[in-house]
Amino acid sequence: MQQDTMGDVIGELRASPGRRVFGIGVLSILGLLLLRMGLSGGTGTWLDGLVLVLGIGALWAGWIMYRATERSLVLTEEELRDSTGTVLARLDDIRGVDRGTFAFKPSNGFLLRTETRQPRLWQPGLYWRTGRRIGVGGITRAAESKALADLIAIKLAERAAVDAD
Question: Could you tell me which residues come within 8 angstroms of residue 103 by beta carbon, excluding any fewer than 6 positions away?
Fold first, then answer.
């Protein structure tokens, strides 16, 4: 186990390097192709401007994903947070973990349900949070995501056992 400034680290989840390169690359290539189409359109209509705006938006999304996937998620005894210190959820606030096939979750990830509503937060490819739901995953490895979800489920089961006594 590692020791950091916020407590003992139980588990950590990072973006897969290959998926990270692929995701950022696809967004960047899409942006460049859209920019090329908009600039070489030659008709000068509003559609050319729209294509340029979409190209810039795709490049911006690639940059945001690049920055977001530099982070990792860290599970401690008290909370799930990212490597910058942003707390996604405290463990005593988590109500359940959903890894089901039909759960509204990121690919290769899982969904956390919390007791209290949280402000919206989004780090493309790593996690999103809206209301009482937190989606973890995206361009992470499926095995690492499953292991982190299992660790959270174990912590919730331990809490339920202590509460039952």
Answer: 110, 111
